[in-house]
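Good morning N.,

You mentioned wanting to compare the apo and holo forms, so I went ahead and generated the holo version with adenosine-5'-diphosphate. This is what I fed in:
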Amino acid sequence: MKVLVINAGSSSLKYQLYEMLNENVLASGRVERIGMDSSIVTHEPADKPEVRDVSEILDHVTAVKRVIDMITHKEYGVIGSMSEIDAVGHRIVHGGEVFKGSVLVTQEVKLEIRRLFDLAPLHNPAHMMGITAVEAVMPEVPQVVVFDTAFHQTMPNTSYLYPVPTVLYRRHKIRRYGFHGTSHAYVSDKAARYLNKPLQSLKMVTCHIGNGASCAAILDGKSFDTSMGMTPLEGLMMGTRSGDIDPAIVPFVMNKEELTLNEANSMLNKHSGMLAISGISSDMREVTEAMHEGDKNAKLAFDMYTYRLRKYIGAYAAAMNGIDVLVFTAGVGENSPDVREAVCEGITFLGIELDKEKNRIRSKEAREISTPNSRIKVLVVPTNEELLIARDTNTIVKELQN
Ligand code: ADP
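and this is what came out, ligand included:
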């Protein structure tokens, strides 16, 4: 079966085409600047050179058509015709409380995703444009939606409720949902396989730290708690997001600085985190570089970032009454030995013994970076959210065919 995985944003659309027999990526790519002049399509076939094409792509339907043109092109295409695509899987950021797993797209499912627009106004409408565009271009092809929130739907109410008037939960579904669920699910499963132990037998903390960052406490193979909340702003310090702050700061600053709601939102989402503290960049590479060159603000940003991560790991160890495995993933987690070392060296009392040499070795594979004596296994596991979306799509569409 061939599955096309799509991640549709408001002005971009990323894609990967999988052959599910051996889980090979046949091609991947992205369309950028949809709706603007000179949109760019970058197409990367597995065994051929990358192709870049600049043209006018005014909407998502045209973007999907261009993707199909690319993957079926006689020179740099990877399949003969569109009819070889058996299913399409979409990444959807918010599944609210309705979606506890991946599902086939039906009229009812689309309606539910629309009802969730309020909870993810920047993401869900764009995903919906992706779904309707695929419908328009490939009406016969079954589509599956995979939600960032679904994995965390197993959280107990002690984890997901906020201590605020309960009417807010009843009326507006104000609660913690958590995000990056596909990644936490993928890396926890992969980590258990790597260790050759049943996932259900392990108490795990997974740290997905990229531009956005979250950690999850995984107990009995299920999400027990996670650091992002009703929106992806809660929790860890991130590239440009503040993470946890005293909520009273918001009305206070709005009043003092005469900020509008949008300005307050933008301050916490786009102008905070590493960027605000370092004054240099939201990118961990640049911050680490500046820190090594002696920049004090960069060091402060790095120290705050790793300190806050350590606090969450400690909290989750307490929440689960123990921890067996610590997993690092995503851009920073997979590529920054400095961050991993600073985090692990500060929580040795838990039973973590980092192998500093192994920690410095670069690899694209899952690997252990703790010593054989370390009670807690520390792993780096490259995430692959697209593969999990492709797998779920494959499973659901196969069931449909039986
Ligand atoms: P996103 O959350 O957008 O998916 P990624 O998971 O790709 O982001 O993570 C992007 C971040 O990873 C960058 O901002 C950068 O800080 C970090 N990163 C990538 N490579 C390195 C590296 N070699 N060292 C430190 N940080 C890195």
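The radius of gyration is 22 Å.

Happy to go through it together on a call whenever suits you.

Best,
F.
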